[in-house]
Design a protein that fits this description.
The chain has 428 residues and is α+β, with helices and mostly antiparallel strands. The chain has helices at 6-14, 66-76, 88-102, 111-143, 159-167, 171-180, 183-186, 191-210, 217-227, 233-237, 289-292, 336-349, 388-395; strands spanning 21-27, 30-35, 43-48, 53-56, 242-253, 261-268, 274-282, 285-286, 298-306, 315-320, 325-326, 356-365, 371-373, 379-381, 400-406, 411-418, 421-424. It contains 13 helices and 17 strands. Strand 12 and strand 13 form a beta hairpin. The protein is globular, with a radius of gyration of 23 Å. The two termini are 39 Å apart.
Length: 428
């Protein structure tokens, strides 16, 4: 455990929320943020994940202090946006560390070797944490799923192991585990099956990490991403360029995220290739204001750079070749059969996939459970939202082109087209 004692752990957990933080960010292996304290000026907190190493301007003699622990927990929960470069005070601290390393006596390990050693140490910590996770998963199945049925608002059954994954520097897994505590009271009567399925996916991820070096590069990148290894924005911008006329098919604000987050779906008008952009907010501004300003129906002639992994979905917008303009209604990818086939192909490449872009034609049919019926008569369940009435009004009971997200169980409609006019079904 990184916490020096139990009181520091509890205090750090109390700071793992957006309220006391401002200007937080992450770039590569460094995370930073300003934490409001009792003094006039906020505390400057920095964590070098490759160490890990810490620096905080607070007077605490504990190491790491509660602010560093809180920042780590906030980052592990997805509450720290990615930034292209560290803040000035974080960069100054990193430069000082590098200068000290460069002035080290002859015979000491060079920076490159030290970085490799730190990477190996992190891999060992992750491996040890995932070994504990597998034991925890076996205990859950052995004891039975009923123990997971905690009441809303109570401490979740997976909170302790999630905190252990933060210590093990596996924040991606920690985020999944925290979400499991809500399943018994938010997923309906089939929560035991869904919980058991999530346990199986976590077990598969832990086993895949054991064989990371033997996996094909694309799958290895998926495993690293799902565990929580980060790829900086600058690294992604250095990857191959994909130029296209990208139509914004849907925009969703992730209201359950720790920090304001927009998920923006794009589709190339020429190749029908999909992409997904994420941008984060904090301190009253968006990480990428130009991306945050995109709306459904807008066409963007730009370069995209995809993150490593498979299938290629998440991307970063690079150079823009023209100002955003109003686009035409897109041609659907196909019916429900095409959507399900794409989802199956995506799962084949990424067994931990949770969201898939949908663009199809169908007729909304209201009822106790709303459905979208495609021209072949195949019905897909629609996620319950007030905006379904807007969808019905635009369609007038006729087939319409709809864009949204498929999660394997239901379709979340984000946009519907009335001729060439895109109507947003998710407020942003």
């Amino acid at each position: 455990m990184l916490a020096p004692d139990d009181s520091s752990r509890r205090a750090g957990t109390g700071l793992a929320r957006p309220a006391p933080w401002s200007g937080a960010g992450a770039a590569g292996e460094v995370v930073w943020g300003l934490c409001a304290g009792s003094g006039k000026n906020p505390y400057q907190t920095i964590v070098d994940l490759s160490g890990p190493a810490y620096r905080c301007s607070c007077p605490s003699r504990k190491f790491p202090c509660k602010h560093a622990l809180g920042l780590l927990l906030l980052w592990a929960g997805g509450g720290v946006p990615e930034e292209p470069e560290p803040a000035d005070y974080a960069r100054a601290w990193l430069d000082t560390r590098r200068e000290k390393a460069a002035k080290a006596p002859a015979g000491e390990v060079r920076d490159e070797a030290a970085a490799a050693r730190r990477a190996a140490e992190r891999a060992q910590r992750v491996a040890a944490g995932l070994a504990e996770l597998q034991e925890w998963l076996r205990d859950q199945v052995r004891a039975g799923l009923a123990a997971a049925a905690t009441r809303p608002g109570a401490a979740g059954h997976a909170d302790a192991i999630a905190a252990r994954m933060v210590d093990a520097q596996a924040p991606g897994i920690a985020g999944v585990l925290r979400g499991l505590s809500a399943l018994p009271w938010s997923a309906g009567d089939d929560w035991p099956a869904r919980l058991l399925g999530e346990y199986a996916r976590l077990h598969l991820l832990a086993r895949a990490h054991e064989r990371l070096a033997a996996l094909p590069p694309g799958l290895a990148a998926v495993v690293r991403s799902r565990v929580g290894y980060t790829t900086s924005r600058q690294e992604v911008l250095g990857r191959p360029t994909v130029t296209g006329h990208w139509l914004v098919t849907g925009v969703r604000d992730l209201v359950d995220a720790t920090v304001p987050t927009l998920r923006i779906w794009l589709r190339d008008q020429d190749t029908s290739r999909h992409a997904m952009l994420l941008t984060f907010g904090g301190g009253g501004y968006w990480q990428d204001p130009e991306t945050a300003g995109l709306r459904a129906g807008t066409e963007l002639h730009a370069d995209l750079h995809y993150y490593p992994g498979q299938p290629p979905l998440r991307a970063v917008a690079g150079e823009r070749h023209a100002a955003p303009a109003r686009g035409k209604r897109p041609e659907p990818d196909g019916g429900a059969g095409g959507l399900l086939a794409g989802w199956a192909a995506g799962l084949e490449q990424d067994p931990w996939l949770t969201t898939w872009p949908a663009l199809l034609t169908g007729t909304p049919v209201p009822g106790k459970r709303w459905h979208l019926v495609d021209p072949a008569g195949v019905a897909l369940p629609l996620a319950e939202r007030e905006s379904l009435w807007t969808l019905l009004a635009v369609s007038g009971g006729n087939p319409v082109t709809i864009a949204g997200e498929w999660n394997g169980r239901e379709l979340l409609a984000l946009t519907v087209w009335h001729e060439d006019e895109a109507v947003a079904l998710w407020p942003v």
